Amino acid sequence: MIQEPEAFEPEATRRRADAAESARANRGWWDRNADEYQIEHGTFLGDDRFVWGPEGLDEVEAELLGPPAELKGRAVLEIGAGAAQCARWLAAQGARPVALDLSHRQLQHALRIGGSFPLVCADAAALPFADGSFDLACSAYGALPFVADPRLVLREVRRVLRPGGRFVFSVTHPIRWAFPDEPGPEGLTVSASYFDRTPYVEQDETGRAVYVEHHRTLGDRVRDIAASGFRLVDLVEPEWPAWNTSEWGGWSPLRGALIPGTAIFVCERD
């Protein structure tokens, strides 16, 4: 009997990864894993909900982009849209969304679900839009955690926003980088330095990165926002709600009750 070769498990490490390597690795990772991601998390995300993170904070109640009634007619850019669930919700409020993602396969899922708004496959660090094209921009765990230089993305977002425009984005709460990415008790003990900015990299047997995630401290995020020409108007750290009994990777009711899992930055362009 001929045995099939065992599937290679990427090696997890911490090492440097520049912008080009990060973009290439993450485009490939999301293209390969989009189907599994949508199967595993599609029910939680829904087809037309706007959820800011694993805690389940919904834009319907959060109103971080503004009251839903005031979204009608507003041009909104969703960055790292995945299957464009957030853009679909925005369209239902009467907004004019554009859903952008680095992964072509993720956007194919957006096509599968449907919607009458544009889908754009592009890098968030080089947005293919004219200056002042949008009233609002948003990103729920999209783009910012995966880029080597978040200021490139922030400056691009500021460029395509009109004066007074708002950009709201959510990322893994920076404190989580000091803890193991485990949902159980083992994820409650500090195991690494919060101040170590070395990227998390998964690489193949040749040392080629297949997934990259970048760490910024809370202070780094604030400085990035200010240096990119935005004004930080709110920082939201959602608490884990009693109704949410699900686990999502390292997010769980146990950890969520004790340490924050998501940070949401509300920024405005003057």
Automatic annotation (TrEMBL):
UniProt keyword Transcription present: no
InterPro entries xref list: Methyltransf_11, SAM-dependent_MTases_sf
Residue numbers spanned by region Disordered: 1-21
Pfam families named among the record's database cross-references: Methyltransf_11
GO BP, one annotated term: methylation
Positions of the Methyltransferase type domain: 77-169
Keyword check for DNA-binding: no
Superkingdom classification of source: Bacteria
Keywords assigned by UniProt, alphabetized: Methyltransferase, Transferase
Name of this chain's protein: Class I SAM-dependent methyltransferase
Lineage: Bacteria, Bacillati, Actinomycetota, Actinomycetes, Kitasatosporales
